[in-house]
Amino acid sequence: MRGRLQALLIAVAGSGSLLFCWISAAAIALVTLRQGAASGGGLLFWAVLPAGALMFVLGDSGPFALLVGATSLAVVLRLTASMPLALLASVPVGLLTGAGVALFGGDLLAQMTAFFDQFLASLEQQMAAAEGAAAAGSAAVTLPRPTALQIAGMLGAANAMLSVLCLMLARWWQATLYNPGGFGGEVRALYYPPVVSTLLVLFAVGLASLGAEMRPWAAVCAVPLTAAGLALAHARVAERGSGAGLLVALYLGWLLVDTVKLLVVLLAVVDSWWGFRQRWAAAAGKTISRRDDESDHDGRD
To answer: Are residues 49 and 84 in the same domain?
Structure first.
């Protein structure tokens, strides 16, 4: 925010790195949010040059896709001033990323398929050795290998989620600089109406019903609902005045356990129809009203 040169240096410095491209993506998103799509697009133009070189030399399109994805979400947020709409844009970003990798990333998919095959073969040998020591003559363990189409869907879902995280980081930076405390309130209010959440679920179910190869693609539709479910958890913790320990446990469970991921999405869908925040506010208002009545009664006595 000090100047175009500083922003350009940060945007370009990390864009060609597999480890630090997220910093460049968040920086470009911050400039887009603060100064508009034209300024952000100018930075993106220079940042995609090293990312494009990395994609051309190594075949890894991850940094390029993340830069474009995060900037796209920032443009939506800048134009609409709506965080739900901006996060909803992660669905086409993820699907287009997966489609691009499936159509043009043959070398990358071949490398990743070979990596998974080698890793799972090694894991099978370890499991067979352990079972052989426990029970001789047991059947060999065979783990399913992901196909190229599945891997493309995984990469699309990963880019959608990372684009959302970069946008959140940029929004937090913006709030820290210009609106302290505003980011937390915006996140805790994140919510999708019943029509949107239902359409996302139906679209995800439709993709998953096409077969195992399309299930990673269905996960793309869960990205906005995941953000909404986690936002609801933040709202509940803030409403109750609880510590951060519950949120840390939730995030750890979300990272490590697939069931928790599904529960977070389900929580967002139920909230769309049930309206937990409104019910909590109404319950809090009734509690305050009862306390005021009791206080007035005690004063009259």
So the answer is: yes
